[in-house]
Amino acid sequence: xxxxxxxxxxxxxxxxxxxxxxxxxxxxxxxxxxxxxxxxxxxxxxxxxxxxxxxxxxxxxxxxxxxxxxxxxxxxxxxxxxxxxxxxxxxxxxxxxxxxxxxxxxxxxxxxxxxxxxxxxxxxxxxxxxxxxxxxxxxxxxxxxxxxxxxxxxxxxxxxxxxxxxxxxxxxxxxxxxxxxxxxxxxxxxxxxxxxxxxxxxxxxxxxxxxxxxxxxxxxxxxxxxxxxxxxxxxxxxxxxxxxxxxxxxxxxxxxxxxxxxxxxxxxxxxxxxxxxxxxxxxxxxxxxxxxxxxxxx
Length: 298
Description:
By secondary structure, the chain is of the alpha+beta class. It has helices at residues 9-12, 104-112, 117-120, 223-242, 263-274, 284-293, and strands spanning 16-20, 30-34, 37-43, 48-52, 58-64, 67-71, 90-100, 137-140, 146-155, 166-176, 179-185, 193-204, 207-217, 249-250, 281-282. The strands form 3 sheets. A 7-stranded antiparallel sheet has the order 7-13-12-11-10-9-8, covered by helices on one side. The chain has a 6-stranded antiparallel sheet with strand order 1-6-5-4-3-2, with no helix packed on it. Strands 14-15 form a two-stranded parallel ribbon.
């Protein structure tokens, strides 16, 4: 058996989404890649089988939330549990799977960034002159998740059901290195939140697939509208992400100039470094050396 190009135990022994069930044809094999390992996914009426293309060895697999999950090593925990998936008055659907030519860690960091809303998502998630990112709180929970609370941002079209601009409350949660969730205030139900979970598939260190899972309150809104809104927003993000330099995420906070609005990004980079996650990143010591020699871009 050949070794995966990833050596991070935290990633090898965890679950990663590798396919959207709605895109699979029963009995027809689907080729994909996870952390540099080519995989063949076959879904039948009553089974899912994933094997390594190089050895034919079977890989641990599971179906959940309409996605196929794989673990290249030995699973040390279950896939992330989305509590809102149990609520019948929500749309619970895939927002699509989009390939992006950038490290999956970069994609997670972009998902956490409110500062780009007025410039990349003008007219939807932000607009000028409402460009300020207000102070917010960031902590690491007892479950070892990054939690950003009291995030507020003015949005002219916060969701498909929004009738006017509103100051939107956000809560971000980084659950695992390549898994992040967003909870945002619903324009109809002030005490409940819509949920977007991003399961990022690290294809290799410089490429990923973003699988989004949407749990939006229905409110007479069609599922297609929810999915279309997510895909519109992501289509705006994709070219920005693919022009990031470098493509991998530097873990040294000095490698790129942070500002006050980047508190959650700084915490995310430190959190990755403390957990020895290096796949898709420029490790701390490498980033520091490059910065000292003046060769680091960004």
